Amino acid sequence: MATALCVALGGCAGLKKDKNASSDTAMTAPAKEQRYEPVKPTSIYHDFQDVLFPVELKLDRKHSSVYVTDGFKTGMLTLSGSVDARSTVTWFENNMVKDNWHLVGSLKAQRTLLLFVKQNRYCVISVTDGMMKTHVEVWVAPTLEDKGAGRLQ
Question: Could you name the domain of life of the organism this protein comes from (predicted)?
Answer without folding.
Answer: Bacteria
